[in-house]
Amino acid sequence: MHTRPPRTPHHPRTPRTPRHPLALRPALAALGLAALVGLSGCTEATIDNRPVYPEKLQAKVLNVQVIRDETQITMTNSSAQDLPAGRLWINQWFSREFPGLAIGQTVTYDLFEFKDRYGDTFRAGGFFATQRPDRVVQVQVEDASGELTGLIAIRSSRD
Question: Which residues have C-beta within 8 Å of that of residue 66, sequence separation ≥ 6?
Fold first, then answer.
């Protein structure tokens, strides 16, 4: 008859198993969960100090045409006055710095340069776009005093 050697802690074939009581396992699980919750607070997203759309009403509209061409907009000042420097707003949500626009001047801006207050960019579309592009419906310039001047957004054939 084959006999098994006695199981002693000093025997080489005796497996070493942890001696945790079953009551300790829920406590360890709760401790791990508390650590995860504490660490998740460290990765909380913060809002950058970006501009917010002004609460003032639009004061006037100038004859400045804004034409969208795929992922860019082209602005031409056909009015009788210069457009002051400030912030250029699209759809009351996305904006970028604006250096101003002289009478008769034409400039082109990439729509990816326009960001919202959370840092997200305008969905401009393009060849590799996975989502439908946003429309350019409203374009305004905010000057240093916070006044809004409307521009003429011309709808493209793709909209």
Answer: 73, 74, 75, 136, 139, 151, 152, 153, 154
- Residue ranges per structural domain of the chain: 58-154
pTM over 0.70: no
Pair of tokens at residue 141: 């310039």
Q: 7 Cβ partners below 8 Å, 6+ apart?
A: 14
Q: Tell which residue, 73, 100, 92, 93, has the closest CA to residue 155.
A: 73
How many helices (DSSP H) and strands (DSSP E) are in the chain?
1, 7
Q: What is the third-level CATH fold of 58-154?
A: Immunoglobulin-like (2.60.40)
Q: Identity (one letter) of the amino acid at 139?
A: V
pLDDT tens digits along 135-145: 888 999 999 88
